[in-house]
Amino acid sequence: MIPFNKASITELEERYALDALRNGKTSGDGSYTFKVYEQFRERFGIERMLLTTSGTAALEMASILIDLQPGDEVIVPSFTFSSTVNAFLLRGAKPVFCDVRPDTLNMDESLVEGLITDRTRAVYAIDYAGVPAEMDAIDAVAAERGLFVIEDAAQAVGSTYKGRPAGTLSEFGCYSFHETKNYVMGEGGAIVLNEGRFLERAEIIREKGTNRRQVLRGWTDKYTWHDLGSSFLPSDVLAAVLHAQMERYDEIMGKRMAVWQAYERELAPLEAGGRLRRLVVPGHVEHNAHMYNVVLPDEDTRTRLVEGLKERGVMAYICYVPLHSAPMGRRLGNDPRDCPVTEDLGSRTLRLPLHADMTAADVDRVLSGVFDILS
Ligand SMILES: Cc1ncc(COP(=O)(O)O)c(C=O)c1O
Fold it and tell me: Mutate which of 59, 63, 81, 182 to test ligand 1's pocket (most atoms within 8 Å of Cβ)?
């Protein structure tokens, strides 16, 4: 079976993980964590970033940092992972679901202003398939109305928007290094603090609400409870794995990009023949080859394609079930008609396998399956 995704792990990841295990500092904030920060500083110019136990944890930290309160409203796309919404639901804030653009499946920035009420406190936008949302437009509306913007860049490590790295496009960026992402540490993530004023409090929230970091820096001699917080810092053993992945950054990106480009090139005739539609990558975006999606004419065709590919040993994946019409979204009082574009496209979008270790023969098998089944 060709899996829809598989982490690319080599002897380098094993070597660094073993080294971290042997050097006696297996909890958080060991030397590998700081090596990772250095890699992100050099590659993306990111000055303030904290590794977290997951992308989910990074989103939860952002929700604490902006002091969301029960009754606050947050504008969020429905076409996302549950974590984007759970992160603020846990603080008692309410999701106001925004529909998506049909071309990129990202939040439709033109709808955001119309969803703002007196209770709106923040916008959580996601960079779907590693393609950043229209963050300039979202940031501009938010700035005018005094709202925070959180960029859920879980899928977008390595992408750029108008030349700026994904994750740096608003006050907070949240990355994931889950094993399904381009660069992995098993379970893990990071919060990027694009405004310096949040750093000190973020360090406290990440350390169970204590000022332990300040003690480690020698700024004070005992640490104590200062704020809300949780156990948000990951083991240095996992940071060692991520350090290896970041050393292999260009190799992993190059291999993923070759697969992405083969799909893009070879599927063009099927689009011309009206059998499927490819998603659009806007000209001002450089994407990171995180996913390859196709939009089918209807849900039955998608089901036929999933089953036909499975028979051919290919695992294709239905990415998100829209949140507003999922069981939890319904319990929160949403109606499937609230986001019609999401509801429609969510039922007929399919993600083809894409990972760094796919061979040319794997790619051919996926493509010939798609052609057979749809022709
Ligand atoms: C858009 C989005 N946000 C958040 C997450 C959660 O990240 P993690 O699995 O690292 O908690 C994911 C995926 O896993 C995601 O795709």
Answer: 81
